[in-house]
Structure formats: C-alpha cells, structure tokens
Amino acid sequence: MTSKEIRKKFLDYFSAKGHTIVPSSSLIPDDPSVLLTTAGMQQFKPYYTDPLRAEKDFGSRSTASVQKSFRTSDIDEVGDASHLTFFEMLGNFSFGGYFKKEAIGYAREFITKTLGLEISFVTVFEGLASIGVPEDTESQKIWKALDPAIRIERQGVEDVFWGPTGSSGPCGPTTEIYCRNANNEDIEVWNIVFNEFFFPGSREELLGNLVAKSPKKLESLKHPGVDTGMGLERLAMIAQKTRTIFETDLFASFIEKLTDDPPLPISHQRVIIDHLRGSVFLLADGVRPSNKEAGYVLRRLLRRAFVYEKIYTLSPDIFESILLAVIEQYGSFYGELREAKNSVINEYWAERERFSKTLERGVRELTALQEPISPAKAFRLYETYGIPFEIIKELGVIHTLNLTREDFDKEFRKHQEKSRAGAEKKFGGHGLLFNTGELKAADKKELAVVTRLHTATHLLHAALRKVLGNEVQQMGSDITAERTRFDFSFGRKVTREELDRVEGLVNKVVKDDYKVDYDTMKYDEAIKSGALHFFKEKYPDSVKVYTIIHPETGEVFSREFCGGPHVKHTGEIGTFVVIKEEASSSGVRRIRAVVK
Ligand code: SER
User: Fold this and answer.
1) Best mutation site among 44, 162, 174, 176 for ligand 1, i.e. most ligand atoms within 8 A of its Cβ?
2) Does the Cβ of 88 fall within 6 Å of ligand 1?
C-alpha cells in the first residue's frame, strides 16, 4: 500500500462518514502564540468553542484533513528509526458533533478493516482528581464492546492527556492506538483526543498546575469535541512493514541519492533527508532563513545539511536534486510546492552562499579546539558564524561532550535579555532619534534602513493592489530597523504564488531603479491625482505626495500621500523579501518584509 493510497483511503473513509475534507493549513499558523503548525487541530481551534461556526464554514460539525506539521521539539532525535521534524498528520475532528463511541469505532474500523492492520494495544486515561478529571472508563467500555480481547493500558496525564496548544485552548484525555512494526516493537500510531475541557493557559502551565498547592479545576467545554492525529510516516512504516520510516516509499527515493559514494553514516543520511524535506515545506510556506523564530528553525535545518555536505565533500548538485525530488513527489498533493519551486531553489542557494564563508572559518575554529568548550564560547561561535548548536556539538567532538543544549539555551536567553534591555533603553522615549509613529529609528544607521524599508513599503502597497486588486487598502504600517509590517484589507489568505508575484514586482522596480519624487499639493488635487492615502488619517489642506516613477518611460508605479523620508532611487532599497503573511484581524492581512 503506497502512502498516496493511505492518504486517499483515509480521506475517502472519513468523507463517507460525513466529514468535510479540509486542505492542510500553512506551516505558519494564524495563532501568534505558536511558532509552527504542530498538529491538525490547530487550524480548527476556534471551532471547539463555537460549533455553529463549523456548520457555517464547513457545512458540518465534522472535518478531516492531512495536515503539514512540524515539531522542533524532535529536532535532536532525528537520525533514529522514527523521529522527524516535518511530518504529515492524518486527522478527523468533531466540533460538538460525534464523541467517544463513534471516534473509537471509526479509528478501529479504519485501522483493522480499511488498512487490514492489527492493533497491539490501546491506552486510556487513568484519571486525575486534582484537576477534576475522572478515569476514562467510558472509552474502556467502548473498546471492550468492540473487541473483548483487546489489551488496554491505563496511563497518566503526561502520556494521555492532550493540550492545550498555544497560550490556551481545549484539552482532554486521549486514547491511543499502538501497532507492531517490523522490528517487533509496538509504536503509537493514532492519538484520539476527547476535548472535554478548556484550560486558560498553556500545556506547561497545565502541567505546572498539577503540582500547585491548590490546582485550578478544568472548565468543561460546553460542546465536547474530538481531535485525532495519526502520523502518515509511522503509519506507512507499519502498513509497508519496513523497519524504519526512511525505508517507506515516502523517503526511499531521497535516501537513494545519498547512498553512493562516499558512504555516509545512516543517521546523517536521515538527518539530511529530514532537514531538506522540512526545508522545502517551510520555504514553500514563505519562511525565509533568519535568526529568529521560524526563520531560525529553517536556518538550522539548512545549515546542518550544509555542514554534512562539506565534511563528507558531497557534490553540490546532490542536495538540489533531493529538493527537486521532494517537490516532485509531494507536489501532486501539496500544489504550493510546485508553485514555489523556483523560490525554494533560489532561497536554498542563497542561504548556502551566505553560510559558506562563515562555515569555513567556524569549522576551522571548532576543529582546532584544544580543550572543552564553555557554553559562552559555544554561543559566541553561534553568534559570530551562525553555526547552530547541534553542529557545534558535532564538530567539537570530545571537546563538546559536556556541552548541553540547556546550557547553550541559557546563554542564548542571557543574550536575548541583554539585547532586549538594550532595545528598551533605546526605545524608552528619549532614545529615539526618529519616530513618526510609523517609522522608528534609534540612530542614523537605523534611520537609513527604515528609510529604505519605507520606500519598499510604498512599493509593496502598490504591488499588492496590482496583484490582488483594489480591494487592498492600507490599514496600518509599522517600520523598524528590523522589518516593515504592513496591514491591509483583504478577505483571504494571500497564496504563496501571489506573494512571489508581489515580491517579484517590487524587486523589478528596485532593479530598474525608479525615481522617487515628491510634490506638495492641495488635498483635493492630491486625491484627484489618484494618490493612495491611509483612510484612517486626517490630512491637512496641503499635503505631500510621493511618486515612484520610471526614469525613462515616466510610468508611475506608486503614488501616495506621505511625509517621508524616502530614498531617492529605488535601487538603494536592495532585495525585498516577504517573510510572513498572516491574518491580523477579520478581513485584514498582515505582511512582514525585510530588505537585504
Ligand atoms: N492533537 C493531537 C496530536 O497532535 C491529536 O491530533 O497528537
């Protein structure tokens, strides 16, 4: 059974049971409290407290999906038989519709009948009085009624109590299905969560609450729901009876590209494949390598792969051929991969180029180490060369044996606190050299960057209208030396392909070095000239209008009410890159972009 067939059987099965099939959401979640999408339920979070909205949006209280998911928590585990960063999660969901009996019935039927696999055992929640959640005897009864011989294991809150995801949300006991793999080990394949409760804090806070003197009881959800998740790769490993996920049809053709000469350790082959595959998906969803948040996750994946490329002196085309194979293999199910093919490949090479010089120096320094490295020194290497922790650890060999991620992270936090304190001082009211409300700069150097970003923001605004139509209106903007953040009215998510076109248009204007000019005009006259203006603002009678105009043809790319400052020629802007597109509020989208 191919993994393509498994996806199809899953969606067909749940569609036949009245579920609306919903496409995967982006790996960049709308929920700002979560870095990346880690589970299928994330895009459905609001529906657990508002089932009527589910009926309105999906025509049903039940949905099913195959969700692109990414777990940074497993990054250090990658290399063994079953851990991954990126994976696909098959899931079915009920928002105040069916509950335990149907959920367990569907799962059992799908595993044993549709796929013809055997269940080794299942788990259920043993209960925890301190938070007011009883043992899940109902699930036990349901399992027994379906299969009197089934083995049921009772487990605690750490293992079989899910959620909340993000800063608060639905949560509840789970029942998990375990199946035997080709190594005769039982592995968890399906996690079936009964969202019966709501907790007004994160999962860490929930767990912390358990040891508190007077723990908070969980609130009951008005409409209990179901959230299930099953990793496609693990399921394929069971269905295809392979000993590792990397031998399934999801990976076999990628691994093949690495098995020739020179021989790489198997764990490193797996890291490379996992990291390149994950990078393709992150890039296609608009993540760009950086030193922050999702961008940093991507950077770590790519740079670790580059280090292996270097130390095993692999030919530079191999990785590109793997990226292309990933796009080819997954592109029929995830069309965004095909659409983003060029930007994926370009970004890949750009990051490789950025890293190559520092990698050289960093590797030299690491391989020359004579004594154990301190966390502070390791952090300095990271800061100077952008070499991620896991690579420092690996290249340092015996000198990094005692270096732990905890100590490194501590160093990282110390540094972050320092720079935050610095930033607060800078922005503490008097420290700002320049602050128009929209533009903020602490010194001359920052002013130069925000000026470039400011002109780029005008170009972005105009390009968005050209690509998406005049529905796009500026709703707000905020520019710092780090980035521009632009809010605009638009009724849906902007696709990656549209973002690529917007980015392309802006960069074309940069390349053609348009002239940036301004005129002072009467307000009415300015309106008549078609200049865009920010509808929330009140303008004086006489206003300044900035025009971005082709130096030879006189074509006007953008015309906007504005107080400046701007660059004189768009060529000064440099490369414009959209980092993220997300919802800001209802009907309003937000784009973050940088110039390089
Ligand atoms: N949210 C649960 C998980 O991720 C079930 O989908 O395992």
Assistant:
1) 162
2) no
